[in-house]
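One example given next:
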Amino acid sequence: MPDQHCDFKIDYKKINVYKEAGTTDICYPVIVSVPHAGRFFPEEFLQNSALSEEQLRGNEDLFVDELVWPLHKEGIPVLSMNLARSFIDVNRDKIELDSKMFYDYPEDKIAIENNRCRFGLGLIHRIDMENRPIYNGLLSYHEVQERIKNVYDVYHKRLQQLINKCAKKFGFCCVLDCHSMPSKICKIIPDSPHIDFCLGDLFSQSCPPEYTAFLQNALTRHDYTVTANVPYSGAFTTFNYCQPRKKIYTLQMEVNREIYAEEKTFEKNKHFQKISDSITDAVQTFAKKLLDF
């Protein structure tokens, strides 16, 4: 990374961190979270990025918010991040920071750099999906702490509030964390020439296996190929919020972008509405079934 510094400040008073719907009257023990579909970039961030807005959108879970949004009409609350994943990734632990990205990283602070940090896709992404550097220089650690305070913490505080509300009403809660996956990932999995959906439950650790099996079957009935834990078993939200002893469960759902969108042009394809309808039907069926488990 260049030795020059990227010094900028964001006016967070003008930013709506998330959007939500169906959160007033929760009819089923399911909360839908969409952390990576945000398309808003603060202007100050864009001015200090080495990439164009279009290039930065390559890290985005394309239109996933719109795919699942109709669920709120069925009594299933949806919480979706407005800010782009390239700005801050709320599906990471807040300590997943690459210390080498900062010119003023505190000397007394321990750097916990896991594989995602080393690969450039920690809490603050260093690169885009084409391995291009996002920033023109080194960042301020203190500026990133402001991102965490004003964006990351705000999103997770609201998600926790919804989980608590749901659990209080039903005695349990299942968080369905919704994402999209690049089609090229789906094509390189051995013995699986095509994957439409992937459900991740940390290999049966984040929710009862019958939850995963039921939703898998509900999607399969719509003639989709659905895998469990391959190629994704779950990430921060799946791991962080599951508390089986307290009957708080999590399940990650990944949708192959190719089946509903044109990945290179960021446009919906002719199957978009069909995919959205299928997801709405399958998740609503799943939500109703949870009341019987």
